[in-house]
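Residues and backbone
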Amino acid sequence: MNPPAPIFALKNVSKKFGQIPSLVDINLEIYPGERVAFVGSSGAGKSTLLSLLNGSSQPSQGEVWILDRNIARLRPKSLRQVQRQIGTIYQQLHLVDNLRVIHNVNAGHLGRWSFWQAAVSLIYPQEVETATKALIQVGIPEKLYDRTDRLSGGQQQRVAIARVLVQDPVAILADEPISSLDPERSREIMNLLRDLSEETGKTLICSLHAIEYARSHFQRVIGLRQGRILFDAPAGEVSAAMVEELYRIEPPRRQGRQG
């Protein structure tokens, strides 16, 4: 029996912004059902890597394959079809604050709905049962018709997760999903993401600062330092020495003597 093809494959990928390298020579494969954490300090390239995995960014060199397709070779329509299979929970959440929760959850349908169906749904909400089911999964079904800006930060994070569940992708990417939450809410959200991945079999990839959650909630941890992969290891094999090296602060370079 042949092993499953990777959902994501990056081959000799580098990414620059202007002349500044964000990722350097990345080779990586992620398989169906894996839970993978990207860890590293700010500026290590975690968010850039996620943007390559959801097809919203193209590499400066190398190849990005999503669902066995080289995205650089796809026409815009085909690229959108691939992107519909990848759900992203953004750090800024990208919710419309003055809309009711059901409308933000239903945004997960926009890749499938026509313009007119989306417009009608803003007046007469469509797919109410689907939205309710997603909110049950994330634990806040009673918020279905609440205004989104009246929810707590943790509840808004759950709405963003429900939106991705409605999208029904094969993989979920989450960019720093707990960066703005207190410790108790952080634990709730990380437990929720892990449990949803286990229950649905969806691939889960998160960028995190919190190494303890990377170890406890994921099967595989990838450490990024200055745009390069420093380590790629099973969570149980990530040692204190590996973490120390990952977050080691470089001493300032001495200036040469002027003469």
The beta strands are 8-17, 20-30, 35-39, 61-66, 69-70, 86-89, 171-175, 203-208, 220-225, 228-234. Residues 88-168 form one domain.
